[in-house]
């Protein structure tokens, strides 16, 4: 059983929802990332989503775009990101790690070389925003051979046919983007999320994670009531940006947010 499957199975037995924080690797300095990853687990994170810095992150809003820019100022590459995962694994062999990014760096490295290296350091899943499943057969096959879960996005505009095609390819979990637009958008409509998650579940038994628009304990708890995972990105990255000159304060602020979310999510077991 993969780390992702084991984590979702354990949480379901405890009637809990996974909390998945996102940070950009190397933001604001490369040396900050691994320590922050450990601190987030201590604060209640179930799974970690680690962003691969990219020069043209088209699906991201200003907050995560700026995080990529800060990381790229230090020349953080895909190889560096894999090195961070390797370092994290020296102390934590259990927490699943999902890499999130864009196709170009993976394509430049080469699908097989990337999959080999990712499996070796302990990567559990991969989200590539700009790789639709109908164009990803080769990479999906290689990832699955290495027991790395390809994770795909669904949107509010996804049709039933589109949902079925994506769910047929997905493993680990399906990521429902709860808002139209880029990361960091506001105005989360929880009722709409409830209906869409129900619709997605008619197509798959794979866990459903929900992200975009989750920024505090209240919104995290509302989404946790209907989803298998709550993904929080811009709210975390904002705290990194606000404290970029003080790594200790980054950890404090991020962990306070995650702890408050974890407590709120756990108040009403499923």
List keywords for this structure.
270 residues, alpha/beta, TIM Barrel, nine-stranded parallel β-sheet, 12 helices, 9 strands, 48% helix
Q: How would you summarize this macromolecular structure in one to three sentences?
A:
This protein has 270 residues and is of the alpha/beta class.
The CATH superfamily is Aldolase class I
Tell me the fraction of residues in β-strands, as a range: 5-15%
Side by side, the strands of the main sheet go 5-4-3-2-1-9-8-7-6
Class inferred from helices and paired strands: alpha/beta
* N-to-C span: 23 Å
CATH top level is Alpha Beta
CATH architecture: Alpha-Beta Barrel
State the helical fraction: 40-55%
Low-pLDDT runs:
181-185
How many domains? The number is 1
- The radius of gyration is 17 Å
Shape: globular
Order of helices and strands: HEHEHHEHHEHEEHEHEHEHH
- Compute the number of strand runs: 9
Q: What do the pLDDT scores average to?
A: 93
What can you see in these coordinates?
The structure is a single chain. This protein has 270 residues and is of the alpha/beta class. Mean pLDDT is 93; it is low at 181-185. It has twelve helices and nine strands. The radius of gyration is 17 Å and the shape is globular. A nine-stranded parallel β-sheet has the order 5-4-3-2-1-9-8-7-6. The longest helix has 20 residues, at 247-266. It is 48% helix and 13% strand. It starts with a helix and ends with a helix. The chain has helices spanning 3-13, 33-42, 62-72, 78-89, 103-109, 111-121, 137-145, 160-169, 190-201, 217-224, 234-242, 247-266, and strands spanning 18-24, 48-51, 97-101, 125-128, 149-150, 153-154, 174-177, 208-211, 229-232. It has one domain: TIM Barrel (Alpha-Beta Barrel). Strand 1 (18-24), helix 2 and strand 2 form a beta-alpha-beta unit.
């Amino acid at each position: 059983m993969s780390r992702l499957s084991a984590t979702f199975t354990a949480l379901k037995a405890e009637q809990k929802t996974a909390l998945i924080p996102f940070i950009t690797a190397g933001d604001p300095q490369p040396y900050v990332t691994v320590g922050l990853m450990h601190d987030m687990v201590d604060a209640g994170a179930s799974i970690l989503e680690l962003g691969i810095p990219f020069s043209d992150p088209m699906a991201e809003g200003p907050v995560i775009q700026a995080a990529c820019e800060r990381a790229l100022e230090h020349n953080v590459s895909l190889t560096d990101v894999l090195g961070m995962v390797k370092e994290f694994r020296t102390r934590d062999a259990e927490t699943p790690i999902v890499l999130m990014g864009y196709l170009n760096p993976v394509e430049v490295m080469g699908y097989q070389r990337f999959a080999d290296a990712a499996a070796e350091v302990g990567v559990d899943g991969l989200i590539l925003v700009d790789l639709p499943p109908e164009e990803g057969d080769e990479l999906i096959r290689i990832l699955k051979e290495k027991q790395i879960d390809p994770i795909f996005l669904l949107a509010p505009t996804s049709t039933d046919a589109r949902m079925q095609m994506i769910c047929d390819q997905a493993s680990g979990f399906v990521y429902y983007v709860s808002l139209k637009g880029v990361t960091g958008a506001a105005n989360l409509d929880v009722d709409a999320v409830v209906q869409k998650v129900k619709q997605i579940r008619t197509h798959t038994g794979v866990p459903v994670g929900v992200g975009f628009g989750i920024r505090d304990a209240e919104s995290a708890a509302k989404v946790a009531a209907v989803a298998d995972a709550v993904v929080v990105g811009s709210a975390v990255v904002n705290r990194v940006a606000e404290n970029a000159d003080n790594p200790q304060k980054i950890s404090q602020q991020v962990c306070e947010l995650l702890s408050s979310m974890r407590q709120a999510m756990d108040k009403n077991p499923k």
